[in-house]
Design goal:
This protein has 176 residues and is α/β, with parallel strands linked by helices. The chain has helices at residues 13-22, 30-37, 40-52, 54-76, 108-119, 123-131, 136-142, 153-172; strands at residues 3-7, 26-29, 82-85, 100-105, 145-148. It is 58% helix and 13% strand. The longest helix has 23 residues, at 54-76.
Length: 176
Amino acid sequence: MRVAVTGGIACGKSLFSQYLNEFGVETIDADDVVHELVPEEERRKLAKVVFEDEAARKALEARIHPLVKARIDEFLSGGGLRAAVVPLLFEVQWERNFDIICAVVSTKENQVSRMVATRGYTLQEAEARLAAQLPVEEKARRAHYTVRNDATAAELKTETRKFVTWLKNLTCSPHR
């Protein structure tokens, strides 16, 4: 079963992924793959441009996304229960490549405050990043399973456990 985790920026996908690993679901993160493929200095230069220039963003995505997809496909072909964290899953139209999609979402206010507090973004930078992505409400609508992350890390861990139980029940079902 091919499982994807998606969601908006600063919705808690990384912590959710960490909890998935704790509960026995191996993960790969598309952002980590990009970090492997694009040197840090180049990423810093590109970051400002791609969130302000849609044409530049699309050109970069056309170059990088096939490489990321290939790495994810290779990872998912391994054994056991695995999931790919793909923040821009719907934006790049990869949803057809997965059997199950889980969206980790949060309110816009929480997203902005997290970006400002933990990532050092200005309000304008946070808003630009949100504008470059599909709204989380749309991601939740298109997903098979939604995890709301507007509370504590402990509550997110509980929700992660529920998702893993749900997934394991699906994989054991003879009617899949």
